[in-house]
């Protein structure tokens, strides 16, 4: 059991520069994980150390797609509220995309096809050229939505010329959108959302092999039909497919239901060695893997993509949502879906854990024990402890913010209960709501020190009881004086 959600939000959102990343690239899931400890054994710094970003990444940018390229740049595109053009940004860091100059590389036609509803662009680099996949309606029939492709051979797609490769021809000429492409075992696939009147209302997910970046081959296969209650609120929808691969499996995230606060994400999984064009190869989650969260103030998260952190060692979830629940009129006319990013974690069984859409501001981290590296600091019945295989994930996520006591201190705020902090009380560590008192501010503030047992880690010294450190003992957390090497190991954590 976790504490009840706090009312209001904390006033401090400033992250301290304790965690940083460096540049690298990756097109599939980043290598991550660390060996499980036995007894008092310890591991080196985690293979996937913490990365933090500050949300929102881009206001009024829906359906975001970020491509990490080998030239050291991130390339970012998304739907603009006017639904009339395709824009690109690039930066050497994910956070840098927030302030990067935006370039319009293509504008809708004034008549005929591709003349309205320019939606959900994705940028990919295939065979030495850039491609943008997007959906568009016709100028005289805005709901005649179909998928289209642009091509650019320049090294920099923001300055190069773009050629229209035209509409992707599908066997069924019906409402279709959200095309994405990926490669498994040398075979390139196209996945998209489409309505088939013979199947029923709404959109299903389809998969086909590709002959080239703008042409499918063979017969498409329907791999997902929205049937669960969480897939059919407002509209019957499966759309926005996005693929990440890891450990011999293909994970395909998708979005479901209407584009309001009911919008959410599900997940399909297949073995990379299976016949992906056999619908039976895919297994769908029974429930959403990512959905609205009132405590963090995030509504309708979805239409995601995946990228990789600057150091190449963490996978990053890219998605849009809104900062409010209630919408006046058609959600498609509301311009305030915004692009957000946060670290994607992986469970011990090799499946992705999306967690929750975290609150605005700096993204949280996890603290793993130095001497029990499969155990993470988490809250349980208000008490702070270390556990393995924490579920829900957000119970083990904490935002590093400016210390409530001021000065050079930091405080550790619960990710899923904003306004609750790790604090010591009679030297036991609890997760409690800030009551505004000086006592609480002191008890919930720490000096972040270089790890006492490992310089790659971090140790937290109590601000109001110098010489006492946050440490685990019997897997519960305390603030204690340290005298032995074991004590110092118990007081050292790695950020993930």
The domain tally reads 2
What fraction strand? Answer: 35-45%
CATH superfamily of the largest domain: Glycosyl hydrolase domain, family 43
Number of strands: 34
Indicate the overall shape.
Answer: elongated
Helix percent band: under 10%
Largest sheet, in brief, is: 4 strands, antiparallel
Indicate the structural class: mainly beta
Which value, in Å, is the CA radius of gyration? Answer: 24 Å
- Low-pLDDT runs of 5+ residues are 1-27, 31-40
Distance between the termini: 23 Å
Average predicted confidence as pLDDT = 92
Tell me, what is the CATH class of the largest domain?
A: Mainly Beta
User: Counting H and I runs of at least 4 residues, what is the number of helices?
Assistant: 2
Strand order of the largest sheet: 2-3-4-5
């Amino acid at each position: 059991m976790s504490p009840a959600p706090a009312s209001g939000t904390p006033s401090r959102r400033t992250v301290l520069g304790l965690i940083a990343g460096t540049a690298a690239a990756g097109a599939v899931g980043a290598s991550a994980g660390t060996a499980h400890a036995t007894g008092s054994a310890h591991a080196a710094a985690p293979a996937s150390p913490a990365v933090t970003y500050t949300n929102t990444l881009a206001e009024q940018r829906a359906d975001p797609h970020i491509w990490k390229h080998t030239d050291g740049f991130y390339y970012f595109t998304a739907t603009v509220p006017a639904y009339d053009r395709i824009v690109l940004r690039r930066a050497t860091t994910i956070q840098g995309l927030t302030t990067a100059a935006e370039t319009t590389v293509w504008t809708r036609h004034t008549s005929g096809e591709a003349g309205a509803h320019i939606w959900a662009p994705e940028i990919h680099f295939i065979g030495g050229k850039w491609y943008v996949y997007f959906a568009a309606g016709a100028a005289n029939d805005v709901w005649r939505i179909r998928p289209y492709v642009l091509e650019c051979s320049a090294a920099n797609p923001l300055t190069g010329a773009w050629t229209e490769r035209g509409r992707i021809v599908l066997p069924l000429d019906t409402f279709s959108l959200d095309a994405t492409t990926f490669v498994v075992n040398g075979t390139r696939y196209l996945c998209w959302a489409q309505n088939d009147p013979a199947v029923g209302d709404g959109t299903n997910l389809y998969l086909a092999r590709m002959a080239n970046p703008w042409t499918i081959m063979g017969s498409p296969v329907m791999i997902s039909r929205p049937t669960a209650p969480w897939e059919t609120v407002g509209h019957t929808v499966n759309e926005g497919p996005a693929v990440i691969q890891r450990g011999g499996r293909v994970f395909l995230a998708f979005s479901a239901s209407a584009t309001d606060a009911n919008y959410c994400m599900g997940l399909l999984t297949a073995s990379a060695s299976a016949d992906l064009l056999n619908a039976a190869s895919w297994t769908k989650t029974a429930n959403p893997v990512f959905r609205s969260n009132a405590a963090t103030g995030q509504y309708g998260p979805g239409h995601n993509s995946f990228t990789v952190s600057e150091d190449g060692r963490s996978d990053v979830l890219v998605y849009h949502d809104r900062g409010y629940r209630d919408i006046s009129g058609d959600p498609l006319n509301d311009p305030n879906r915004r692009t957000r990013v946060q670290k994607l974690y992986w469970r011990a069984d090799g499946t992705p854990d999306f967690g929750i859409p975290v609150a605005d501001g700096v993204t949280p981290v996890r603290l793993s024990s130095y001497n029990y590296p499969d155990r993470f600091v988490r809250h349980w019945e208000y008490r702070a402890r270390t556990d393995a295989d924490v579920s829900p994930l957000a119970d083990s996520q904490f935002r590093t913010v400016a210390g409530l006591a001021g000065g050079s201190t930091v405080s550790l705020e619960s990710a899923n209960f904003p306004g609750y902090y790790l604090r010591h009380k009679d030297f036991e560590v609890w997760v409690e709501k800030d009551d505004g008192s000086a006592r609480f501010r002191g008890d919930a503030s720490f000096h972040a020190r270089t790890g006492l047992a490992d310089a790659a880690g971090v140790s937290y010294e109590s601000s109001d009881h110098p010489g006492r450190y946050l440490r685990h003992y019997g897997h519960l957390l305390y603030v204690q004086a340290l005298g032995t090497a074991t004590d110092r190991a118990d007081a050292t954590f790695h950020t993930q």
